[in-house]
Amino acid sequence: MDKFIVLGEKKLKGIISVSGSKNAGLPIMAASLLADGHYILKNVPDIIDIRTMAKLLRILGAKVEFENHELKINTENCSYYEAPYDLVKTMRASIYVLGPLLARFGKAKVSFPGGCALGARPINLHLQGLQKLGANIEIEHGYIYATAKKLNGTEVIFEKKSVGATTNILMASVLVDGITILRNVACEPEINSLANFLNKMGAKIEGIGTDCLTISGVKNLHPADVTLIPDRIETGTLLLAAAITKGNINVKNCCPMDLGIVLEKLKEIGFSIETENDSIKISGKAKNPIEISTNPYPAFPTDLQAPFAALLSTVKGISIIDENIFSDRFMYISELQRLGADIKLDKNRIVIHGGTKLTGAPLMASDIRAAAALVIAALASEGKTEISRVYHLDRGYERLESKLAQLGADIERIED
Ligand code: EPZ
Predict the structure, then answer these.
(1) pTM of this prediction?
(2) Most CB atoms within 10 A, among 104, 177, 202, 257?
């Protein structure tokens, strides 16, 4: 298992490119199960989660090749419809094959994803949505068995906005008989990119970008090619890495529009942000503590909650973060405290007394974004920080350490 060794207090400077989006790539890969044939996905990040989804598609009978950020998928021989426990337990997004398999084969058997490092993560909205479309769902021996002779258009009103449930039900709806209306859907850019891809495959989805999608079912879909959108969370992570070192970087090949509130918060702290069509420059210093509240897009993303906490622990004054998406996304706090951060947790709120001196220490990562937060904090810490379990980071970031080193960070990956 790899570790990072970081020698902190180096200012980041220079230009860096963002990779394609993990959370856009995973559902699009699952969508390839909806029609037989050859797909080419470009700008695909070379990260563990993408490789796990590729493995799952292979188990289902697809041929998948991955080279130079290009993923070739051939779904001509897919006839298997079971997503096994061993894979689902390593990546919850495996549940994304449930909707497409059901729509395509009328049956799916997918391991029930358990809890995870972010707290309870139920899938009731996925299952209720599928039942509303006419599926029969049974849970046995840790597996979801979904079957349907025929799925029919209907209206689904999601109790709360869920990226995963919207993704699954959208994919299940495109081939049904009749019209489906999905209300209170998640509007994350990754959902829009999936909906656009499905339309490219021949689906008829209207209302993309709003919280109501109308899907007119079609009889058949056909394969399509796509270039993945830039990863907005990696973009934010790189900006925060520069910010905490009082650096000055230009992040290229990103989509500033997808980071609205994040850029506003960085400005509120005191950083100078300049955007162009597909790039963001950050410079300046932190001056003000801030308050953040995570909520579904376009509000502040939960995936940048931990990385922001790392930055705010170095900003003088009291900052407050409310986490409203996941029940327990604070496992990183005790690690930041080891560096000297003053953070107190009260239910879903953390209060950060910022500005304490951070000094390097051995740390352990607990999930993708917690790992990113530890890396960011290490960049500002005096001396050496050793971060173990960086496989969490590798699930979602392509060689983050190389990108940071390119910008002047002293960070090294070592095999433990
Ligand atoms: C997606 O997870 C992302 N994963 C997460 O990214 C991200 O943190 C999250 O959306 C929120 O933006 C992928 O895109 C692969 P949700 P997802 O369903 O779909 C509750 C990362 O680090 N809920 O939008 O699982 C749920 O408990 C990750 O890249 C139900 O109650 O999130 C949560 O409180 C981690 N019932 C809220 O909804 C359900 O059936 C939002 O979760 C489904 C969800």
Answers:
(1) 0.98
(2) 104
CA 361 to the chain's CA centroid: 28
**Distance from the alpha carbon of residue 302 to the mean position of ligand 1, in angstroms:** 9
Give the span between the Cα atoms of 390 and 371, in whole angstroms. 7
Give the tens place of pLDDT for each residue, 68-125.
999 999 999 998 999 999 999 999 999 999 999 999 999 999 998 865 677 778 899 9
Domain boundary among 227, 255, 285: 227
Provide the number of structural domains found in the chain. 2
116 flagged as catalytic:
yes
Q: Which residues, at least 6 apart from 119, have a Cβ–Cβ distance to it below 8 Å?
A: 326, 327, 328, 329
| Residue with CA nearest ligand 1 atom 30 | 122
d(CA 103, ligand 1 centre) in Å: 22
Ligand 1 center to 305 CA (angstroms): 14
Co-location of 37 and 179 in the same domain: yes
227, 260, 281 — which closes off a domain? 227
Tally Cβ neighbours within 10 Å of residue 17.
15
Mutate to test the pocket of ligand 1, among 19, 22, 163 (most ligand atoms within 8 A of CB): 163
- CATH number where 113 lies: 3.65.10.10
